[in-house]
Amino acid sequence: MLRGLRRLNRYEKRILDIVKIGGKLVRLQQFGFSRKTEEGFRFPIHALEIGTEKAIQKKPVGIVAGVHGLETVGIRILLDFLEYILHKKSDGYMTELEKGKVGLVVIPIVNPGGVAKKTRSNPAGVDLMRNSGVEAESAPLLFGGQKWTSKLPYYRGNSLEPESRALYRFVHHYFYPNENAIMPVLDLHSGFGTIDHVWWPYAGTKSPCQDTPVYEKISEFLKVIKRHSRFKFGPQSETYTTHGDLWDRFYDHYVEKVNDGKKNARFLPLTLEVGTWSDIKDNPSKIFRKRGIFNPAKENKFETIVTYRDFLRDFVLLGQSNLKDWK
Ligand SMILES: [Zn+2]
């Protein structure tokens, strides 16, 4: 049953409105379709190019959301951010996009079938963030990804799902070809707990990735200079390890096959896991309300969502930098 169809339609409408608001600065693209639902629906997976064509090509930064169909906070944070930076009358209007200093490419909903079905997984029951085929060194028994059955959560599937392939095509198209660019890509998720984590690779091993020094410098910059001190930065495996992380696969593919190390370009995937209880810090009385615990601060969702605008703006502006800035 498609209990989330109205919700999905609402988001799609906002995406079309964003295309309208952005005028010449925004172009709608499609990178594929979701898995078919039992009812026979296949949903298109849309991407938006925001900025001049040259900046999209030479200075692209990425943001994606909705890999897990239940984590709609990430989708709403992203749509709010786009409205905020594209409205000409908004305080947040980003002139850097218009001037071609940086380009932004987004997939607001990677897993539209999961949103429509109100499931974490895609319509085939596959958890896309366990789907890459990468084997972790060790991972928690169920949560780390399992190959037994799609009837249990965290199912890894047998091969790349259509949504995973769409995300790969997106990454390959916009980020792999550049010779000279810093290309951070942020994947928005939400998790249990109060802390906002920003993770870099790897999810599958505690060994540091090749770009750890660059990630550390960027984190320090965002934390100290840009004052985003509430975010906790680090490799994902510091929090937990999982099998099948898509970013592990794309990152390794880039490092091993695309960039021989001679290019002054870096593809830098990051995951923001929004602590869904993070607004409780501001209003501790919520925790004592019955609804507050299971449905954190529904009345305060809007305020929670807008608190990510500054962080996302500073994240996008990283695309203006060069590799030598982080050495
Ligand atoms: Zn997630």
TrEMBL record:
SMART domains linked: Zn_pept (SM00631)
The keyword Hydrolase is assigned to this record: yes
Leader sequence segment: none
Highest taxon above the source species: Bacteria
Gene3D superfamilies: Zn peptidases (3.40.630.10)
Family annotation (InterPro entries): CARBOXYPEPT_ZN_1 (IPR057246), Peptidase_M14 (IPR000834)
GO molecular function: metallocarboxypeptidase activity; zinc ion binding
GO cellular component: extracellular space
Keywords: Hydrolase, Metal-binding, Metalloprotease, Protease, Zinc
Record-annotated Peptidase M14 domain positions: 5-273
Pfam families the record matches: Peptidase_M14
Essential cofactor(s): Zn(2+)
GO biological process: proteolysis
Family: Belongs to the peptidase M14 family.
This protein's name: DUF2817 domain-containing protein
Annotated source species: Leptospira idonii
Taxonomy of the source species: Bacteria, Pseudomonadati, Spirochaetota, Spirochaetia, Leptospirales
